[in-house]
Every structure is written in C-alpha cells, then in structure tokens.
Amino acid sequence: MAEREHTRVAVIGSGFGGLGAGVRLRREGVTDFVILERADAVGGTWRDNDYPGCACDVPSHLYSFSFAPNAAWPRTFSGQPHIRDYLERVTDTFGLRPHLRFNSEVLRARWNREAAHWELLTASGERTADVLISATGPLSDPKVPDIPGLRDFPGRVFHSARWDHGFELDGKRVAVVGTGASAIQIVPSIQPWVRRLTVVQRTPPWVLPRMDRGINAVEKWLHHTVPATHRARRGLLWLIREFQVGAFAKRPQLMKATEQLARAHMRRAIRDPLLRSKLTPDYTIGCKRILLSNDYYPALARPNTEVVASALTEVRGSTVVTADGTEREVDAIVFGTGFHVTDMPIADRVIGAEGRTLAEHWKDGMAALRGSTVDGFPNLLMIIGPNTGLGNSSMILMIESTLNYVADYLRVLDRTGAAALDARPRAVRSWNEALQRRMGRTVWNSGGCVSWYLDSAGRNTTVWPGTTAEFRRATRQVRLAEYELLRVPTATKGAGV
C-alpha cells in the first residue's frame, strides 16, 4: 500500500472555526497540521453566502477574534465582503497558507483502532492524522425542501447560500421562500429591481431595528492608536449580551418588553392592518432567531411585493402553489430555507471505533461532551458542536472557548503519553442530560414555536443555555475522569500506511 501523508492534526474547514484552530495550534507550538477545505478559498459561510445584502447581525467589534482585533471595520454591522476580507487577512497574518489544502473535501474519515489514528479520504487523495478537528460549521450545507414539481420548474432555482450571479433579476417575477436571516436581507436588496416579488412565508419572524451606521475615521484612528479603547468597546458589547441571557434562558416572560419594541418597529413601517396581521408572530420573541432590519418591512409594503402567509407545497410548471391555494407564476425561486443543522452531512462521513458513522451514533439526537467530543470517536473534536450555538451573541466567543479545550486536549495527550482520548459514555450522557434539563425553561423550548434549533424529535441540540462566560469556564481544561486513555504499540503509531 502506498504511503499516505501523515500529520498530527487535520482540521476540516477554513471558516472562523478552522482558521481559529490553525492559529491556536501554531500558538501552542503545533505546526504539523493541515486545514482541509472543500472549496478553493478560505471563508466558510462568509465565502459561500454572497447574496445581495448579505451582512452579519452581530456587531463587528464582537464578531472578530480576540487575538486579531480589527480597528478598521467600516460599519457597526459589517457586510459579507468585509468579513471575508478579514478572514483572508487572518490567514496571511498568522501564516496559515502553507497549512491549507484547497479542493480537498473530506469524503470519509475512519478511526483506525490498531494504529490509533484517523484515515481520511479526501477529494485530493488519502492521508492520516492523529487528531481530527471538525470545523465544518452548522451553516455550511443548504437545505432545500423536497417540493413536488420543483425539478420541472422552467425558470431558475437556487438557495441563498448558492446565489446564481449569472441570473439577471431585473424585471423578473421572483418568489423568495422563507423569512429567516438571509431572506430578510435579500428581500429589500432585490425588491427595487424585480417586477414582482412574492414572499412565501410559513412563519413570520420577530424583527427589531438594526442599529447600523458607518464607523467614522476618528473612531478607527482611536481604536488603532489606543488599543485599549477597542478592547473596551468589545467588552461593553459582550457584557450587554451576557445580561440578556437571563431572559432567553431562565425567564422568557422578560421578553415581553422586547416584543413591544418589535411591534412598534412593525407599526412604523406597515400601515395596512391586514399585512400587519400576516407579519405578526404568535410565539414568544426569541423562540426563533430574532432578526434585525430597517428595510425589510418597508420592502414588504411596496406595491410590487406580496406576502403569502402559507407554506410552499407544489410547483406546477412556472407556477408556485402554497398550502392556502394561492398560485403565482414566477421566473425564479430563491430558497432562504436554512441549513442542515441538526443533521450535519459530515456526520455521515465520520466512522468511529465501533465501525458506525457519527450519524448512526446520533440517531436519537446529537450529543457531545462539552460540545466537543463524542464517545466511540477517539481524538475527534468539534468546533461549534452540539449545544454550542447562541441566540443573542457572537459565535466567535464560543469558538475561542472550544479552542481552549482543543489546546488542553493536545497537552493532555503529550503529558500522559496516550495515543488518544475517548470520551466516556457516562460523561457524555451526564453532560447532555444536565443541558436538556436546563433547556426546558428556555424561550427556545417553551416559546411556542418550531425552529431550526430543534431536531425532528423536538429536542434542542443546537443552543447553549447559558452565558458565554459559563461556557468558557466549562471548556477551560480537559477533565481526565471524563475520558478513557488509549494506547498503542510504538511501532504502530504514526505509520501512515
């Protein structure tokens, strides 16, 4: 058998999680690693999502690495091009280019029990690694519903994360399916150009004002010249969001005040009481992701826009049909229907010590110890794993906390001389049972909605029910009692064949 390249660590994905892992590995003195990327450039979701109006709904100064502050953000809420540029700069600044392997989608990852390493089949060849870090992210694989007749639609069909830039929307009749975070940015961006815009809304979102503005030259100069001012701004943004957690996770009744703000925001833009009725949710604000926009409601009120408050059920030729019987002829269908979050495709490709896939292991729902490791899958660590998502703050905070855990995990391997660590089933079960007990009183579980936070069984396997500070404490270090140490003969270790 031909020799395969072996590295100590292989990282899957080059978005915030994968690049952050690369930086942390180098800072820990680990240089024997590769970052496997399926595309031909870094950026992850901020590379793939380049639809009109794409921007972040977390303030710029909080949506960046603590070790790579950016005093030059142009706006308080930055757009996709600026975030992607930031990730490119991080790649160059921290010397990650030599570690990148583009066009190297991981097709299969199998744990070799005898050699105690991962065997990887990628689009660019085979390789092995002692430790596998999955940083594929939950918002990486688009979800398009299986709609009868869709395949025979004569016009253009595409998902927001796979925008067809070759299709000219000017003067066209367009249906936007979904009203999530992407859709409320797309709708006002294309509304002025299309002839007719049909917004197919299964469930209305709660929308709050987007407090966005340009960051002036004085602010940029001050943050660059006096870094402490930048840290203070970031700290204040973080603290505000930490205080909000109580309402989301412990006392959903406190969300009523926020709901009144959202209602007032709608009333200012939507004068038609019938349309306002269509757009008013019947669940507690925060149960589904709260959206931020100043131009979504005005776009819906324009004469060339129609909101159909019913789910898409069928496509007949060039006609879209909804559950209430509404039929509209369109030239293009844009799906803003989210991603495979609770059924991540990477789980079908990772095979553990017992010969079954991660998806099979998770048949009753995703679960991981401290959001990072899974019993029966030694030396597999996840960035943004189960129950590490947030409903109100920056995911970069959670990523950096998980990177602390990854760093200590590698130190434990070095210190103990173990070939691998395997999470104990009891530890994984105990961690997740405690999470689910806490989840019951959160707004995500008790707010009266069905969201992408919940899996097919109604179990919340995505969101963290606490503060980011609490998660950082929980992932500060590996607890050896939660793991079994695995060893193999020295002659077998790292053979890479």
UniProtKB/TrEMBL annotation:
It holds the Pfam family FMO-like. It comes from the Bacteria. SUPFAM superfamilies: FAD/NAD(P)-binding domain. The keyword Oxidoreductase applies. Keywords: FAD, Flavoprotein, Oxidoreductase. Belongs to the FAD-binding monooxygenase family. This is NAD(P)/FAD-dependent oxidoreductase. The lineage of its organism: Bacteria, Bacillati, Actinomycetota, Actinomycetes, Kitasatosporales.
